[in-house]
């Protein structure tokens, strides 16, 4: 028996990358895991793969987290299918990089709507049940870009910095009900999101990482699992950088 046995965990995204690694980590511990993505077929296929890989229970849902009604419906379905949500991991995120002068308003909005409003939608939708249960864990995946900025990513940096402020405010609202809200800020992690970077940029990033390697989804999943677990029960409003020292 693990501390996550029979607990319900909702991870936004989860069809690939960091979210998928988080889903596998919780499924291995016996949790009932829900993942979501923008297309039903992809989400269901990923859930089946993770379940087969881990021997755990994983269900995939189609949801665009930027839509508040869609998120409300997701939380209702997850609760009905798997039981009340104990852990929420706000992981789903996108980039639409470009210099500010050339950034289209829709590229600004898409990133804010998914990366920041998406987390708001999910936290709001799960918080009522968590308050009733007087327990819960919310882990928001920000980025070191939200801490130190990055030219070409004003939209992404604003969303990720916003997520940190949002998490600290929400942590204060929920702390007395034994619900913790924490942030994981990954550095440079090997996923589809970073695979599109130029060779030159990747080499430059690697050189700046004191540990001289790119992080993995599993590196982030370990931090998420820690913050969701009993060993972190007195930690709330914290930002845990998992970046091989990149943002020092
Ligand atoms: P990927 O691009 O590999 O995966 C993104 C995930 O988000 C996919 O599962 C995708 O599902 C889902 N997703 C995107 N938009 C939506 C949406 N509107 N509704 C529902 N699901 C959505 O990204 P990573 O795994 O690299 O990143 C995960 C998180 O970690 C992001 O928040 C990212 O900003 C953050 N991060 C990543 C870093 C890195 O170096 N990779 C560094 C710092 C932070 P689908 O496509 O199936 O819809």
Label this structure with key terms:
248 residues, alpha/beta, Rossmann fold, globular, binds NADPH dihydro-nicotinamide-adenine-dinucleotide phosphate
Protein architecture, described:
By secondary structure, the chain is α/β, with parallel strands linked by helices. The chain has a single domain (8-239), classed as Rossmann fold. The protein contains 9 helices and 7 strands; from the N terminus they run E-H-E-H-E-H-E-H-E-H-H-E-H-H-H-E. It has helices at 17-28, 40-54, 68-82, 105-133, 145-148, 154-174, 192-195, 199-208, 217-228, and strands at residues 8-11, 32-37, 57-62, 85-90, 136-141, 179-186, 239-242. It has a 7-stranded parallel β-sheet, sandwiched between helices. Helix 1 crosses helix 2 and helix 1 packs across helix 9 (217-228). The chain is globular. Bound molecules: NADPH dihydro-nicotinamide-adenine-dinucleotide phosphate (NDP). Residues 12-19, 36-38, 42, 63-66, 91-94, 114, 141, 143, 186, 188-189, 191-194 line the site of NADPH dihydro-nicotinamide-adenine-dinucleotide phosphate (NDP).
* Oligomeric state of the chains in view: single chain
The major sheet is characterized as: 7 strands, parallel
Mean pLDDT reading: 97
Radius of gyration: 17 Å
Strand order of the largest sheet: 3-2-1-4-5-6-7
CATH class: Alpha Beta
CATH homology-level superfamily:
NAD(P)-binding Rossmann-like Domain
What coarse outline follows from CA principal-axis ratios? Answer: globular
Structural class: alpha/beta
Q: Under the CATH scheme, which architecture would be assigned?
A: 3-Layer(aba) Sandwich
State the separation between the terminal residues, measured CA to CA: 38 Å
Bound ligands, named by name, code or SMILES? NADPH dihydro-nicotinamide-adenine-dinucleotide phosphate
In percent terms, what proportion of residues is strand? 15-25%
The number of helices is 9
